[in-house]
Write a structure and sequence with these properties.
This protein has about 210 residues and is mainly alpha-helical. It has 10 helices and no strands. One of its GO terms (molecular function) is 4 iron, 4 sulfur cluster binding.
């Protein structure tokens, strides 16, 4: 895809949703990190239901460690991969308590050392907290980037690097929200809604429908 098309697409998203708002509910850095860790393979609405219940018991890493793996697993069981997520959260809380005085680091390299925190989680966390241009590439962003030919790559890391290169700085902080929402509601993995897509004209998806 050429530069002109990319700019048109970004401006279209800006026109329809200039300032996307994160739907996860949180009061502290720790609550935000936990919410993002839970959001993989789960909807924001489901995560909000779970964290509303969880944050009654939990305000800091030591609270998680006190309730323990078995109770945590029960509380978060309605989100996808809850067993794996519960274990990662427990391990992360141990590190936060031992090395960071129960605070969450706001450095990408340190965040990536936490169990269950990949580049998507770290970048989204830093994007929200620091208000800086970190691009988080999740399943939806990866699919939209590749399918439209906006930024193609065989891994999320490769797509992330290409997006940094081809997306002007003023759009970068909002890209995850735009592509994420578009991937959830229109550019779906099965039966994409090409006919009602706002970027249909410029998308380079080979099998798109314009009816």
């Amino acid at each position: 895809m050429n530069k002109k098309k990319r700019i048109i697409i970004l401006k279209k998203f800006e026109q329809y949703c200039s300032n996307p708002i994160i739907k996860l509910k949180y009061k502290t850095y720790f609550e935000l990190l936990i919410s993002i860790m839970l959001s993989s393979k789960s909807s924001d609405s489901q995560v909000k239901k779970v964290t509303k219940k969880l944050f009654v018991y939990v305000q800091k890493p030591s609270d998680i460690l006190q309730i323990g793996y078995d109770k945590l697993k029960v509380i978060i069981q309605s989100v996808g991969l809850f067993n794996k997520k519960a274990l990662a959260i427990i391990k992360t809380c141990r590190i936060l308590k031992k090395l960071y005085n129960e605070n969450v680091p706001i450095n990408q390299d340190e965040l990536l050392l936490l169990p269950g925190v990949g580049r998507k989680t770290a970048n989204l966390f830093l994007n929200i907290i620091l208000k800086k241009n970190f691009i988080a590439v999740d399943t939806h962003v990866f699919r939209v980037s590749n399918r439209t030919k906006f930024a193609e790559g065989i891994s999320t890391y490769q797509v992330e690097n290409k997006l940094y290169k081809c997306v002007p700085i003023r759009f970068q902080s909002r890209l995850h929200s735009w592509f994420g929402l578009h991937g959830r509601h229109f550019c779906r993995s099965i039966s994409p809604k090409c006919s009602t897509c706002i970027i249909n004209t410029w998308c380079e998806y080979s099998y798109k429908s314009i009816k």
